[in-house]
Design goal:
This protein is α/β, with parallel strands linked by helices and 262 residues long. It has a five-stranded mixed beta sheet, with helices on both faces. Strands 6-5-4-8 form a four-stranded mixed beta sheet.
Amino acid sequence: MARKKKQATAPLVDILVGVFGLFVQGIIIIIYSLIKLVMFVFVGISIYRSGYKAKSGNGLFKTYFNKGNKGEYELYKKLTKIMDQKYILTNLYLPGKNVLKTELDVVLLTTHGIYVFEVKNYSGYIYGSEKDEKWTQVLNRFLKHRFYNPLRQNYAHTKALENYLGISHEEIIPVVSFSNRSTLSKINVNDKTHVLQVDKTIKLIKENLKTANRIYTEDVLDEFLIKLIETTNMDKNTKEQHINEVIQLKESKELKLEDSKA
């Protein structure tokens, strides 16, 4: 009789343990969701208060759920901690050589030079050199992604800025800035070429602010700023035109490459 009672009690205990386990999982999910919601709201407030929304035209959803925009915002936010935000500009559309407009991700004006950032919000191992047309992102042994050499990409941006402001290339400091989640030990570039994680990008700027020679007055920076502000926060049609031109240029280059091989 006692054995039957024990057998009857065992399923009840299992049910109670299962219910308790589900209850605990539910609490964990609720807490996690609340934390994510608070972080989401915090990011939204920061996007507006930092001036990023006004400068880029990207609100909370366009920033948070777009990998590229989120990477640009993360660099922008760190830059605002060491520089006056008025000298930090995003999403500039300047006249290009092979396209009508070329887009600069982030630009920083300082008295020792103008930084032009090409932002890559990539994780994983990054492989590439200055001479390679394509670089490689490796997430694991099965997942790889090839992308256009960001040094070449940023070179086009610096040339556009030179022409637009009428300055020399010595006055511009190009930087390719990758996410802190990336590993850049396989990048083969010379010591004067800056391919850095975001935190090391900030470290570079801090060091230059202390040691680099002053080449601009603040009045000159303000003149540059007024001119560059006109190129920011473009409407949707301009952005679509930029994307279409890049696609058409890429297709044109691929056709020329195929013709040269034929």
